[in-house]
Write a structure and sequence with these properties.
The chain is built from 17 helices and no strands. By secondary structure, the protein is mainly α. Helix 6 packs antiparallel against helix 15.
Amino acid sequence: RFCLPLVLASLPTMATGEEIPPVPQDSWGDFWLFRFFVNAAGYASIVVPGFLLIQYFKRKNYLETGRGICFPVIISCVFGSEVKSVHQEDGSLPPRAEPTESSTARQVFKLLFCAAGLQASYLTWGVLQERVMTRTYGATETDPGENFKDSQFLVFMNRILAFTVAGLYCALTKQPRHGAPMYKYSFASLSNILSSWCQYEALKYISFPTQVLAKASKVIPVMMMGKLVSRKSYEYWEYLTAALISVGVSMFLLSSAPNRHVSTVTTFSGIVLLAGYIIFDSFTSNWQDALFTYKMSPVQMMFGVNVFSCLFTVGSLLEQGALLESLRFMARHSEFTAHAVLLSVCSACGQLFIFYTINQFGAAVFTIIMTLRQAFAILLSCLIYGHTVTVVGGLGVAVVFMALFLRVYARSRMKKRSKKLPPGETPVQKV
């Protein structure tokens, strides 16, 4: 909650950097698709040997025949204890504490604390993210400065701090007995770091407000996938809100197209990267839902995923020689060092606030807070970095967030109504 005042105090410094035109590339090494495949090759150099080892231990029936000092580690990584939870119907989070009538003031204070923590963490994170990826460092009257290019290093910075915070939390507090095989976290970890990488890279090609709106509209491909693949059915209000979101995003993008300012031109590369973010992020959440069938806490999930995230990113950075180059960039520009560290702190604290808010107040309250955060993030980005939004574009933003709030309201009404349904009747499947 103290991050936002700090970053607001440094806004003059953040705004001084020159904005980087998104299109020109110095070489093939700077092209995002080339870097994506190089990063993927680095991850494969770790995943493939790991996969072969897991298959070897399973074929050898190591669970029955193994022994020695490495036996507990291999069992934990490959087999786990296979203890699954049967107490959580949604398979995602432990039941939240219900507030009592005598502690209304306490609950209000908790809600304000959660809202302030989430807003401060993620608004600061958004401002810093745009500063790092779209502005130069070390610019003077004679020197244009240089920009930081390696998004994977930022992902590594975020994950190493999140790993540390989650590890300390698990060590200092009582946690459920862990039962999931450790290797299963690697799938969510891989998709998580790829989605984060796409999110950072997209800012080189599109504006931050465009990115926020695109992330807010990911409900549309989720519904389409559910309809085509899973044959799910949806309520009329879900189709209505999806249509409103489409209209709002279209209004914003079309109103920005005539203005050829580099910060508002949506390029094809930016669209592809945003699509990659949505695809990888959707896989992450679905795989984590499946992992929650094991008896574990959200912080244990955070720790397990970030263990592999650190392994993948540091391995890929070392193979490319990019880790030393990024560290040299940090040594040259102390301002970048402060931004990267604060970015990681906000990311780690934000994850803890997410777990605490959902546990205390449920998903509906959390969704409202985060939807407000998205609206504030667009406003803050426009104020600090001078993004131009036309009247039509502003109306499009308003339509998108009106649709998002309508979804939250309608979903809460449906949940209340489903509790009153007679036995045997089930509500329509929703996203």
